[in-house]
Amino acid sequence: MALSVASDLLVPANPNRTALVIINTDASQVVFLGPTDPAFANMGITIFPRGAATIDKGTQGDIFTGPVYAIADGGTPIVTWWEQ
Question: Which residue range(s) make up the domain with 38?
């Protein structure tokens, strides 16, 4: 999905989610993630260029199952995601 400087829904809510990986494939743009709309630049989870964020159940057995919104700090970076 190509992002922009406007907040957008990246991953819909999924009550059955057990893992989520979000990858910023861009070579220069930073992406920010948040649980509410709008997502804000310079706030929330930061994914640097060619970086990733992983969310899983961990040792506590809890995982965020709500929607994930995203925004870019500039340009139109391509972000991919995988969910289990």
Answer: 8-83
Q: What is the largest CA-CA distance in the chain?
A: 37
Structure tokens, 7: 């907040």
Structural domain includes residue 1:
no
The amino acid sitting at 23 is I
How many angstroms from the chain centroid is the CA of residue 54? 9
How confident is the model over 28-68, as pLDDT tens digits? 999 999 999 999 999 999 999 999 999 888 767 789 999 99
Spatial strand order in the sheet of 45-47: 8-11, 68-72, 31-34, 45-47
Residues 18 and 5: their CA atoms lie apart, in Å, by 29
Q: How far is 84 from 82, CA to CA, in rounded Å?
A: 7
> How many domains are there within the chain?
1
